[in-house]
Amino acid sequence: MIPIHKLKNFLSKPTEKVIPPSWIFFGSLALLTTGNIILSYFPTPLLLTLWILLLGIAAPLFILYLTLIPKKSNPKLIFQEESIPAIPLWLWWALGGVAVVLRLVKLTTLFQWPFKDEGIFGYFAIRLCEQWNGALLQGLNQLPTLFTWIQSLFFRLLGPSLFSLWSYPAFWSLLTLPAAWFASRKYFSRSRSVLILGLMAFGFWPLLIGRFSTQAVLMVFWEWVEFLALGAFLNARREEKVTRLLLLAIATGVGFYTYLSWPAVACLAVLTLLANSSKPIRNRIFFLVTFSSVCALIVFPLALSYKGQGSDYFHHLWSMGSNHHWAERFQIFTGYFTDLLWGARHGTFRYGPLWGGFMNPLCGSFFLLGLIAAIKKAKSVAFLFITAFAALLLPAVLSNDFEEMRMVQWIPVLAIGIALGIDFFLQSFSAHKRVAILLMIFFVSLTLDSIHLFAIYPGHWKKNLSYYNDHKSVEFYKAYTYLKPIAEREGPGLILLNFNPDPYDQTLFVATYGFNAAENPGLVPASAKWVALLTNVHEQPYLEKFFPEGKWFWLSEGLNRRDGGFLLGILPVNPANQIILNKWRMADQSLEALTRLVMERGVDPDQGPMLDVLEKAYHQFEGDPLLESRYWRIKALHHVAEGKTEEAITDEGNAIKRGLPLAHLYNEMGCFLFKQNQTKEALAAFQSAVLQKKNYTDASVNLANLNLLMRK
């Protein structure tokens, strides 16, 4: 077996005596890229995966490490070398135009319909447009509201719609580019800064984040602002130090209002201040105390908001408080790394890549090359790079489940690593060849990422509805395709959405707000020529009797919803139905406060405030069979959330007696009765559900299972 030091000497011998090191270098890089391609795009059994990791990933990285010749120059100058010529102004404009197009093309059609999380942020932004409350936290997860505050201003300017919902993250994604450029110039040469900017402009992950209207895109922008402020402080003259330190502290403090993962970035800034060996320990302590004091003053109001129940979500996220087996925790830990390079291939929904990893195989190979080059050529820089990567890893690995949005703070670090790898690779060629090589890399990488984003993603939702589960509503998407054309033809209408027993998905509310006179205070309800009802499919026969001129669309057809699912009714307003439709609108509006409470508190064990709202609203529902059924069903579900199943059974009985005897009401009551071990009563309820003329529930399955259980 050849000793390591002899193998190293062999790889470093002059080119006239052995195989040229360049061939070894290119061969190892080609093998590494091949390994990444196989693991990214092809399903591989476990044994083959292990062999590829060993021979296609680890081995070429080891050979690359041995091949590289350490630099003997000042480590501070290692990353200031120029590898590509200056870019002419016309090319800057051309590339900038491409970057804009990639963020705006298919803006409202790429993902077709918002995710539930996007609807939540949009909902709160709209409510802030209606009435500003100044709250620092929002929603069940108690998230910081800076993103939503600015989104509300965005909605005031453009009006709430799918266009404004998705152009808002595109705005932050574009604003990230100059932030990345100016921040990079504080640390790196022009060439490497150009490469970093290119990766932020055209890389898959930065483009993907710019398509989701969630807080993650704001945090990526502010992280570059933080790196800019940190670089300005480190490079400041003596007389500028205090001013730059204050700016850094302000940027860090404001960052806590962007996203829950920000503490990792703040931790990185603190470590940098402590590790700045160019300053005496006394100066470092002074800087740290000043930095921490200013930052604490800014963060104090936010920290105060987390008192009491505000911290519940943190306890939920904390991995040490979970019941996961150590093997599950290890799988979560490794899943984040595999997602970066090759994809994690989970069976449940995630905000992650669908075709390979967040980095395509080419970028993944250059990232690993950049890491190896940093370790070999500038150990101090490599140490800082790895420390940064580890610090930014904490929000992901310390949580109790797998969620890619907790990884977005890696985006700048990955862009830097990939850029270093590409830059080092270009230095293997003569100067006149580098531009052509860089263009080839750019073309291949952009092609892979464009296929991933614009070809794989758009069709994935409709082909894999079970994968997305309730994270994206196909029913609401269908409803929008019916409502939007009629609004364009006849103007705003009354769209009644608060009757939904589970109003936590507000995507349809956000998408239709611009033409929904029932919700938008800027529209006049009396001028509406049509009304849209989002109701249960079993209510259709009753509604058709009163509104024979209505149009009905079973939105949940083929989805096997337990209660039959949603029915959309579109009704013209005329003198004959105006009174009853106005009553329904008033009843719907009386539940707006309930919707707000659900959005803020979710399935809270204390349902008292929500039940109080229902009690006060009952007079709007009383006496109308359809409204009575809806009212008591909603009340039953809130009693169940509070753990009061007996009260829920009574509510379902009222929904049937005072309202309409519908299959989904009998079926739900049967489930509640079975939960209370009232087997005979449950059997009767399921039988009643099955006997209804219209029954799209799973009552027949429940009945068969209960009969089988009783025989045993």
Give an overview of the whole structure.
The chain has helices spanning 4-11, 21-41, 46-67, 89-104, 116-130, 146-158, 162-185, 190-202, 204-209, 216-234, 241-255, 262-275, 281-305, 312-317, 326-341, 361-377, 379-397, 411-426, 431-463, 465-468, 474-490, 507-512, 540-546, 578-590, 592-601, 608-617, 625-641, 645-659, 663-675, 679-691, 699-711; strands at residues 137-138, 143-144, 494-496, 530-536, 551-554, 566-572. It has 712 residues and is mainly alpha-helical. The strands form 2 sheets. Strands 3-4-6-5 form a 4-stranded mixed sheet, sandwiched between helices. Strands 1-2 form a two-stranded antiparallel sheet. Strand 1 and strand 2 (143-144) form a beta hairpin.
What structural keywords apply?
single chain, mainly alpha, two-stranded antiparallel sheet, 6 strands
Topology overview:
Blueprint: H1 4-11, H2 21-41, H3 46-67, H4 89-104, H5 116-130, E1 137-138, E2 143-144, H6 146-158, H7 162-185, H8 190-202, H9 204-209, H10 216-234, H11 241-255, H12 262-275, H13 281-305, H14 312-317, H15 326-341, H16 361-377, H17 379-397, H18 411-426, H19 431-463, H20 465-468, H21 474-490, E3 494-496, H22 507-512, E4 530-536, H23 540-546, E5 551-554, E6 566-572, H24 578-590, H25 592-601, H26 608-617, H27 625-641, H28 645-659, H29 663-675, H30 679-691, H31 699-711
Parallel strand pairs: 3-4
Antiparallel strand pairs: 1-2, 4-6, 5-6
